[in-house]
Amino acid sequence: MSSGVGTLRAPAGAAPRSRSRPGVATVYRWELFKLRFQKRTYLGLGAAAVVPILFVVAVHFRHHRGEGGSDFAFASYLTKSGLVVPLVLLLFGAVWMFPLITALVAGDIFASEDHNGTLKTVLTRSLERWQIFAGKALAALTYAIVAIFISGTVAVIAGCIQSGFNSVQTLSGTIVSAPKGLELVYMSLLIYLIPIATVVCIGVLLSTITRNSAAAVVGTLMISLLFQLIGILPGLGATVPYLLSTQFNAWQGLLRQPIDWAPVVRAAWVCAMYGIPALVAAFLVFLRRDVAGG
Amino acid sequence: MTDAPPDAAPASLGPAPVEVRGLVKRYGELEAVAGVDLTVHAGDVYGYLGPNGAGKTTSLRMMLGLIRPTEGTVRLFGRDPLESVQALDDVAGFVEAPTFYPYLNGRRNLELLGSFDGGDARERIEQALETVELSDRAKDKVGGYSHGMRQRLGIAGALLRNPKLLLLDEPATGLDPAGMRDMRLLIRRLAEQGMTVMLSSHLLAEVEELCNRVAIVRSGKIVYEGAIADLKRSAGATYWLTTTNDERALAVCRAQPGIEGVRTAHGRIAFTADDAAVAELSQALIEARALIQMLTPQTVTLEDLFFSLTEGDGIVNGGRPAGEPATLEASR
Ligand SMILES: Nc1ncnc2c1ncn2[C@@H]1O[C@H](COP(=O)(O)OP(=O)(O)O)[C@@H](O)[C@H]1O
Ligand SMILES: [Mg+2]
Questions:
Q1: Would you state the pLDDT for residue A74?
Q2: Using the beta-carbon criterion (under 8 Å), do B104 and A37 form an inter-chain contact?
Q3: A3–B contact, CB cutoff 8 A
Q4: A114, A174, A233, B221: which has the highest count of C-beta atoms within 10 A?
Q5: Does B260 share its domain with B209?
Q6: Which residues of chain B fall short of a pLDDT of 50?
């Protein structure tokens, strides 16, 4: 007696209703698919790819005008090996570029549903709220990972075209071969993902709470800048090891010989200290919220 | 009663599609829903009738698990939508205008929803698009759809779930007359195929046309729940009467049992009565030699119903009268 329109076509004696239930992976796949239709995705990934190229071009011209900059740690090595370029990028990108690129999607991923009024649409299907939440958060993280690796890879390629695939000097003064250097670059990118993941968590929290994309993106960037501000305030020096901004430098431990894992380990737990509560808060807010709009 | 579909299906089919008990939703001081009880039986086309701001959408949001009731419970086929989305397994519908991702086309939106439904929902996409006559626009971005097209896509999205219960929030509101007619035809067709439908509306005529049972809600309270036919009979229709001798006719009307609210207006006699009483009256008028020149029933409006339900004294006796709310309303 429950023959809806849909069953008219179904074969006679169809199996009893046992829905194969969708899950987090379903949401995740569709979130990635939806990201492909959004300008901000291309804005973020585009910036991640273009900035290292611009950087290399700038270094090229400075070098040829004989203005070799010696105002930062790796400057003198920039023209000796292309592998230094991604590392310098990580150093400067931590100030606002990578947090912004990350926040662009993380801050939007829940707020956009409020903007389009689509939460009521997806929450009345066969997925629990926690599944929607997990799929979306994972998609935001995936985008950030892709952005970092695009940026790093473009930097390696552009840098090597400019300065060659040469050996690099570590922070301890030793020289490592080019292939070993490349390995260190990608390991550094991996370590860099720890604080980036925390930015994702903060972005997701603000996206859930503010329900407004612009507010969440700007807010996430502000929090990231605030950490840096605390770091340079006089008298607050003791807090520096525990600031989120400091963890963006953890990868530098890899460039010592022997490798100094201490900053990496600290980054892991300090970032967890910020990221997990933010994520749990976002989760609870999303789980309990009234979907009264749309 | 004769023109209405059969009242309720037998209760032996398991838990009722919708059972709402003591439902309350407060927004600060405002009681958007103020203690709603209602039951939708299998096979019903159930109207949830009330003016704008009565709390219809808020009630439906609670039924779909989108917002948390302040008090009370919702059961869909015996399951609580707050506990698990599995309570919605046999349920589909939407509140207010259905929403989609504007940057995806119609078919993609349905594919997403079908994936989120699981099972064989995605296999129903083409048929659902056909049912709502959107096949030829399915590859256009939803951002460019008209309100009517979105409304139809909303129905298509609901059909993917192959639901036993369809919850619709003012599905025809905002559509042009042709769109309204199509929407009502579609709902009727779905109901004829065995789907239980609960739809909210602020139009009495719409509910009258589609539904067999109705709950009338005002200021968050149910003022009537029952069969439409009973409601109309009990609320009584308003008639206008002119005769060859209105003075005598007026006296007859006042004396006649079953003729209520007798008054003169615009040079005519007005009263409310049910069919049987009107028949008796015409006989009495002939005997009193006040011959009928015109006797016209006036369409009952939602306002008339509210008047009789909330200000009248015990007029409601066909359905389950919502005792206290009515008097509370009257004293506002
Ligand atoms: N999220 C909300 N916050 C505050 N008040 C609300 C909210 N949603 C609805 N209301 C109020 O609750 C009442 C009922 O609204 P609603 O359920 O939308 O009525 P209907 O659908 O019958 O027109 C209205 O007075 C409305 O302003
Ligand atoms: Mg409404």
A1: 57
A2: yes
A3: yes
A4: B221
A5: no
A6: 1-11, 312-332
Q: In 3-state terms, what secondary structure has residue A108?
A: coil
Angle of CA points A278, A279, A282, to nearest 5°: 85
User: In which element (H, E) is residue A61 found?
Assistant: helix A39-64
Tell me how long chain A is. Answer: 294
CATH code for the domain of B259 = 3.30.70.100
Give the residue numbers spanning the domain of B130. 18-227
Q: Which residues of B touch A26 (CB under 8 A)?
A: 115-116, 118
Residue B1 lies in a domain: no
Residue B170: helix, strand or coil by DSSP?
coil
In a domain, B318, yes or no: no
Q: Is B110 in the same domain as B255?
A: no
**Statement: residue A136 has pLDDT above 70:** yes
Tokens 């097209």 belong to residue: B149
Is the whole model's pTM more than 0.80, yes or no?
yes
- Under a CB-based contact definition with an 8 Å cutoff, are residues B124 and B105 in contact? no
Name which of A1, A3, A5 to mutate to probe chain B: the one with the most chain B Cβ atoms within 10 A of its Cβ.
Answer: A5
Q: Which residues line ligand 1 (CB under 6 A)?
A: A 292; B 27, 30, 32, 50, 52-58
The pLDDT score that the predictor gives to residue B319 is 39
| CA–CA dist A269, A273 (Å, integer) | 6
Q: How far is the CA of B152 from the centre of ligand 2 (A)?
A: 18
| Residue B135 Cα distances to A153, B106, B123, B125, B132, angstroms | 44, 9, 14, 10, 8
Q: How far lies A96's CA from each of A71, A191, B172, B206, in Å?
A: 19, 18, 50, 57
Q: Is the ipTM of this complex over 0.90?
A: no
